[in-house]
Specification:
2 domains, Rossmann fold, binds S-adenosylmethionine, 3-stranded antiparallel beta sheet, 8 helices, 241 residues, alpha/beta
């Protein structure tokens, strides 16, 4: 196939192919590395160091009794604007605290509870059985893939989870693929701009940073609403074609 090329021509062609593959890969993997800070992974995405993941041992913290008073999850539910037949995905669902609150709001729809820790999904299955909830499905995702059904999800909710995704870009591309056109992504993240929010810095996010990261995967900023005590309620949308 390369018979018509001189040796130098073949070298030039080989270099061009190699460089093309390298450039494509560099574009796909927009991460850099730094020395890990306390609570951080040392992996940097668009200027933000990714935090460490919360282990399944934190279930009791996620299920803590004073969470309603501290974070007002009931108020979150009232502000999501869900329709009874919506398909909602709770990504980084953890113990399913939010998945179980979402379930009665979509009686003709379903809640897809995605996590990468099987222990979390087992805990959710136990709670489903106990409370006889039938419209929550657990999905074991990977660090790069939510395993959401393509083009079927109306709303994605991520509570205190996105900042710890080890592969945020791949995760967001997978989420965008799972959304219907016009579908929404709602983030609850501790307010990074506020030094009085008593959470470790890498577990908080600023509006500017999330907006930058969402723009890079083609999501449109809709609004930020700060009606919660210590978290942002941020909404983005997948543009309709
Ligand atoms: C701090 S917990 C929050 C749990 C839940 N959203 C809540 O607020 O109660 C973050 C969860 O994200 C999960 N997680 C981390 N990376 C993930 C990924 N790439 N895909 C899905 N879940 C992930 C962790 O396993 C953990 O259960």
């Amino acid at each position: 196939m390369l018979r018509g090329f001189s040796v130098s021509g073949r070298v030039a062609l080989f270099s061009a192919v190699l460089w093309g593959a390298f450039a494509a890969r560099a574009e796909e993997v927009p991460y850099t590395a730094k020395e890990a800070s306390r609570d951080g992974t040392g992996k940097v995405y668009l200027g933000r160091e990714i935090s460490q993941t919360v282990s399944s041992h934190a279930i009791s913290w996620l299920e803590r009794r004073d969470r309603e008073a501290e974070e007002r999850p009931t108020l979150v539910m009232e502000n999501l604007g869900l329709k009874p037949d919506d398909v909602v995905a709770d990504i980084g669902a953890g113990s399913g605290y939010f998945s179980l609150l979402l379930a009665p709001l979509v009686p003709q729809g379903r809640v897809l509870a995605v996590d990468i820790q099987q222990e979390m999904l087992d805990f959710i299955e136990g709670r489903k059985k106990l409370k006889q909830v039938r419209n929550v499905e657990t999905i074991l995702g990977t660090i790069e893939d939510t395993k959401l059904p393509e083009g079927q999800v109306d709303v994605v909710l991520m509570v205190d989870a996105y900042h710890e995704f080890s592969h945020p870009r791949e995760m967001m591309l997978s989420i965008v693929k799972g959304l219907v056109p016009g579908g929404r992504v709602v983030f609850l993240e501790y307010r990074g701009e506020d030094p009085n929010v008593p959470i470790k810095p890498l577990h908080k996010m600023t509006v500017k940073q999330i907006t930058r990261e969402m723009a890079s995967v083609g999501l449109r900023f809709v609004e930020v609403r700060d009606f919660l005590p210590i978290q942002h309620f941020l909404v983005f949308q997948k543009p309709a074609p």
